[in-house]
Amino acid sequence: MRIARSAAELPNESEIGLVPTMGAFHQGHLALFRAARAENTVVVASLFVNPAQFGEGEDLERYPRDEERDTRLAEQAGIDVLYVPDAEEIYPPGFETWVDVERLGSILEGDHRPGHFRGVATVCLKLFNLVRPTRAYFGQKDAQQVAVVRRMVQDLAVPVEIRVVPTVRDENGLALSSRNAYLSPDDRKRALSLPRALAARDRSLLDGLEVDYFEEADFEPRVLAAAVRVGGTRLIDNVVLEGDPQ
Ligand code: AMP
Prior knowledge:
There is one protein chain. This protein is α/β, with parallel strands linked by helices and 246 residues long. Helix content is 30%, strand content 21%. It is built from eight helices and nine strands. It has a six-stranded parallel β-sheet, with helices on both faces. The structure holds adenosine monophosphate.
C-alpha cells in the first residue's frame, strides 16, 4: 500500500473504487474496504477529517485520530492507496464554492447540524474530482449522507456509481462509529436503547436519552432514523423499513 499526501500521487487507472473516510477505522470501515476490494482493480481510501462538516462547538478538535493504526488496518484490508490530503489541497486559499443539496441536506441531521451536509457534499465532489473513482462506497449507517450524495451525483451528472454497505453493529446491536470511543462504560449501556428502539419502532424505549429526532425518512430505501445524545456524545442510527440497502 502507498500513502498519497497529494492528488499528484493518486493512481491513474481505469477502474478505481474510492472509500471516503475520516479515519479511526473500525469494522464498519473495513466492510466498506472489503466491498470496494471485491469490485475494483484499484482501491483508494481517503482519510480526511473534513472541517467543513463540523459545526461550531462540535467535536472537530477532539475527533479520534490515529493515522498509524489506520495505515496498518488499511494495508491489511488490501487498500492500494491511502490518500491523506492536506486541508489546503481540499480547500485551497480563496476557496468559496460549495455544493448545497437543498431539501435532503436540511431535514433531520441537517436541521440539527446546519451546514453539515454542505460540507459533506462539497468534500465528496472534491474527492470524486481528484480521485476519479468508478465506484464510491458509503455506509447505510449514515443513510441521509447516502441520500445527499446520490442526489448530488444525479443532479450534477457526476460520473461515479454510489455503492452502499449495510450497517455493521457490535454484539449488542450498537452501530459501530468512531464516536463510540467517547462513550463511558455507563454511556455504552444506555446507548443500547437506540438500536433497540429502532428495531422495535418504539420511541418510548429512548426514555431517559435526549432525542434530537426519531422519524421515518423518504430515502431509498425508506428508513426509520434517529439521533440521540448520550452523555456528551451524539449518536445516529437507522433501520431500513423496506427494500435492500443497495
Ligand atoms: P466516517 O469515517 O465515520 O466518516 O465513515 C466513513 C464511511 O464509513 C461512511 O460512508 C460511513 O457511513 C461508513 N460507516 C461508518 N460506520 C459504519 C458502520 N457501523 N457500518 C457501515 N458503514 C459505516
